[in-house]
Amino acid sequence: MVSLAAEAVSVIRSERLLLDGVSFATGDTGSIAIIGPNGAGKSTLLKVLAGLEPPTEGAVTLDRKSLADLPAAHRAQAIGYVPQHFNPHWDIRVRDLMRIALERARLPNILSALDRSLSEHDLEAFRDRWWSTLSGGERSRVLLAMVVATDPPILLADEPSASLDPRCRLDLIARIANHGQTGVCVVVMHDIDLAFRYFDRIVMMNGGRIVADGSADSLFEPSLLDDMFGVRFARSQQDDLRFISAGWPIEGDSDGNEKPG
Ligand SMILES: Nc1ncnc2c1ncn2[C@@H]1O[C@H](COP(=O)(O)OP(=O)(O)OP(=O)(O)O)[C@@H](O)[C@H]1O
């Protein structure tokens, strides 16, 4: 079991403060959704946790060892990262893309791991397809299959369901959240409904900071979430299932007082 932590991390790029003293730690297991408005710093935090963006201040540790000092293969085995966008510079077949990812993590039995992952994700038909010929949703599914093929204890995913139809979105998010039973998953997402339905823990970000971090149950109530997005969410709960959907924008006057809808 491994755990990942950011300790007082700040990121400055082009004189802009993207992350402002963020501290965050996973446990050994658990599903974590990072939510927040556009530009809040969610993707930046995920890239910092993946070791792809060096922090300007603070540190990222994997099992209390500095991530920056770990060999690349060790990092690739421990942390799987599903990017928001992936554009290879030249066209490549799905099987070759997955093979490269598996080789990078230096896993044995690459071909059987590749076939097992394609089969588990119902993607056998895409094995020999060229990346350029896949739809947006198919690319998202292949990217996830590629990353989990290495069986990383920590799975980081940046808006993995953005281009998926409703059925594929449910399948993919449930599959990722399920990773939190045996390992850790940290997912940046705008699907607030799925975040509260499938994830144990919600991290809310705004303005480069974590403004709330707690169980999905504890953050389901209105004040913080509605104020952060400027949206009145409609909520209901059936047994242990939480349903939430964006209702209508909160219209305020120039002093920020809400007008009755
Ligand atoms: N290299 C950079 N230089 C300057 N500003 C940057 C750089 N990278 C990101 N930003 C800015 O930092 C802020 C945070 O970006 P980030 O992608 O982390 O936000 P996000 O919460 O993931 O947003 P979204 O929900 O829109 O994807 C944004 O305002 C973005 O424009």
Overview of the structural elements:
The protein is of the alpha/beta class. It has a single domain (4-219), classed as 3-Layer(aba) Sandwich (Rossmann fold), CATH 3.40.50.300. It contains eight helices and twelve strands. It has helices spanning 42-50, 72-78, 94-104, 110-120, 136-148, 166-178, 192-198, 222-229, and strands at 4-13, 16-25, 30-35, 57-62, 65-66, 79-82, 154-158, 184-188, 201-206, 209-215, 231-238, 241-249. The strands form three sheets. A six-stranded mixed β-sheet has the order 6-7-8-3-9-10, with helices on both faces. The chain has a four-stranded antiparallel β-sheet with strand order 2-1-4-5, with helices on one face. Strands 11-12 form a two-stranded antiparallel ribbon. Helix 4 crosses helix 5. Adenosine-5'-triphosphate (ATP) binds next to strand 2 and helix 1.
